[in-house]
């Protein structure tokens, strides 16, 4: 039986999530996945805050990077980051629920470009992230013939 693109995205995400200790340790939840897109979220807790009493930028980057990873790996191909950049727009506060929504901009050959917006629970933009991906070979799961 042929899997639909949505089923492929969901099975790829399930396989990745089972091994993604970093995102789980951070306290992320995988909220949605579809071909070329993914949504992850996390609540800013005390251990996520820095010396300014706001969410450490590294954790915001990690949340965005994880959403990017699930989006670009949604085609049952093993894909890694080639280059990422982030612009911090506003601080994340203790108790904020941050949501990272990744969407595919372009896929060509073995490369891809993905944008991720991180917002708080009020829809305030916290960060804008752009990720460039590279397919390295292999699959997350064996598809039935």
Summarize the structure in words.
This protein has a single domain, classed as Hotdog Thioesterase (Thiol Ester Dehydrase, Chain A, Roll), CATH 3.10.129. The protein contains three helices and six strands, in the order ααββαββββ. It has helices spanning 5-19, 21-26, 57-72; strands at residues 29-34, 37-43, 79-88, 97-108, 111-119, 125-135. With 145 residues, it is of the alpha+beta class. Strands 1-2-4-5-6-3 form a six-stranded antiparallel sheet. Strand 4 (97-108) and strand 5 form a beta hairpin.
Which architecture per CATH? Roll
| Principal-axis shape | globular
**CATH fold call:** Thiol Ester Dehydrase, Chain A
- Rounded to the nearest angstrom, the radius of gyration is 15 Å
Which quaternary structure do these chains form? single chain
What does the largest sheet look like? Answer: 6 strands, antiparallel
Low-confidence stretches: none
Distance between the termini: 7 Å
Task: Summarize model confidence as the mean pLDDT.
Answer: 97
Number of domains: 1
Number of helices: 3
What's the total number of strands?
Answer: 6
Q: Strand-and-helix sequence, N→C?
A: HHEEHEEEE
């Amino acid at each position: 039986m042929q899997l639909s693109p949505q089923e492929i995205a969901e099975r790829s995400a399930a396989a990745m999530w089972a091994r993604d200790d970093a995102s789980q340790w951070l306290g992320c939840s995988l909220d949605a996945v579809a071909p070329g897109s993914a949504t992850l979220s996390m609540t800013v807790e005390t251990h996520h805050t820095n010396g300014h009493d706001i969410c450490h930028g590294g954790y915001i980057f990690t949340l965005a990077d994880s959403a990017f990873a699930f989006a670009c790996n949604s085609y049952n191909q093993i894909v890694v980051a080639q280059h990422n950049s982030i612009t911090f727009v506003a601080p994340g506060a203790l108790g904020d629920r941050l949501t990272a929504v990744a969407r595919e901009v372009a896929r060509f050959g073995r490369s891809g470009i993905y944008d991720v917006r991180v917002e708080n629970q009020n829809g305030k933009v916290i960060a804008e992230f752009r990720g460039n991906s590279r397919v390295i070979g292999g699959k997350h799961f064996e598809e039935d013939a």
